[in-house]
Amino acid sequence: MVNVGIIGCGFVGAELIAQLHATRSSARRLKVVGITNVKQMLLSDKDYTPLHLTNWKSDLESKGVTPNLDDFIQYMAGSPEHAVIVDCTASEAVANMYPSWLKLNLSVVTPNKKAFSGQLSLFKEIHLLSANYSGNGRTPMTYHESTVGAGLPVLNTLTDLLKTGDEITMIEGIFSGTLSYLFNNFSSTSDGPSKGTFSEIVKVAKELGYTEPDPRDDLNGMDVARKVTICGRLAGLDLDLSTLNVENIVPEALRNVATADEFMTKLPEFDDHFSKLNEDAKKEGKVLRYVGVVDPKGNSGVKLMKYPADHPFAGLQGSDNIIKFTTKYFPNGIIIQGAGAGGPPTAYGIFSDLLKVQERVEGF
Question: What is the rounded distance in angstroms from the CA atom of residue 68 to the CA atom of residue 315?
Fold first, then answer.
């Protein structure tokens, strides 16, 4: 048995609970014994009886107490069985706590990118504390597949390549569902009618909920940069956000406007700028794609690039992610493609990581 405590039960956390409940026969060895958010905290009894996931929302409201993260962690650390914390927040403050949890023999599973793309010292400490599982049922583990590509097997594939002695020549990909959607619709080699100006497509994406509340948080490239940093670090490179070359495609004049509404109002003024970039690419028979690159030779970064029509990145549809690994064993590359964002895919990635913890604890 593995006892599970979930921090954050919003969009992703709630979907994870729904998946655990829907597959309770196959996931019966995973027991959710604690749930907390910023308003309430619900813990099981001293015997760590599983919470009733059918009514967890109403139980959290009616039986929950004022949240105290220290109390939550101490409760989980007192588990007689292996315990894992699932951090479904995007909080840097929570991510900074991972080493203290691991020192209490609590495993960590999370889609939170902050611990793995922030301070390099934090990344290395987490890796050191969870790298050598002894099989005694208590030593902590860390899994974070969903930090890159949601439920796509990106990090798992990368880790397997390295474990088998392969050498990474290049990792490149479209790591953002938002930017995938924007450029798949904006830049095409098709001679058909345009799907709109750049600002119109951003507006539609925002209305569909594809972008952050302030689209500049997507267009500045930092989300992609975090994912590039995570992949690079797992590949053995000491990448750092502060030195990574990141192309911010937010027009400079709009980077410091006060609100997202003001940004959206003024963005049409720069449609000619984006239109020229697109037309220049089309003249070459190419399309624009916003790509993250991990290059062991030192040219890692995030940038707007042009690709020919027959390139896999050029034919991407919707908001899919696509990541290509080029290695010594696979010189022509391995391509992973699919939904790289959203509640169900992200929760799937977390769920699969939880199963890995359970299988290692129980020796499967």
Answer: 48
**pLDDT for 193:** 55
Catalytic residue list contains 227:
yes
Q: CA geometry: angle at 149 spanning 166 and 18, to 5°?
A: 125
Residue found by looking up tokens 């192309």 in the block: 247
Query: Residue written as tokens 């026969």?
Result: 25
DSSP-assigned letters across all residues of 256-284: T-S-HHHHHHHGGGGHHHHHHHHHHHHHT
Q: Rounded CA gap, 352 and 347, in Å?
A: 9
Counting Cα atoms < 13 Å in the Cβ hemisphere of 149 gives 24
Nearest to 326 by CA among 148, 151, 177, 161: 161
pLDDT for 133 equals 60
* CB of 240 closer than 8 Å to CB of 193: no
C-alpha Rg value of the chain to the nearest Å: 22
Contacts of 55 (CB under 8 A, 6+ apart): none
Write the pLDDT tens digit of every residue in 39-70.
Answer: 999 999 999 999 999 999 999 999 999 999 99
Whether residue 187 contacts residue 289, with contact meaning beta carbons closer than 8 Å, is answered with yes
Sign of the alpha-carbon dihedral angle for 232, 236, 242, 246: negative
Catalytically annotated residue among 113, 114, 206, 227? 227
Closest C-alpha among 277, 331, 276 to residue 306: 277
What pLDDT shows up at residue 188? 85
The pLDDT assigned to 136 comes to 64
Regions of the chain where pLDDT drops below 70:
25-27, 132-137, 191-194, 364
The pLDDT value recorded for residue 257 is 96
Q: What is the pLDDT of residue 74?
A: 98
Q: What are the backbone dihedrals phi and psi of residue 259, each rounded to the nearest 5 degrees, phi first?
A: -135, 165
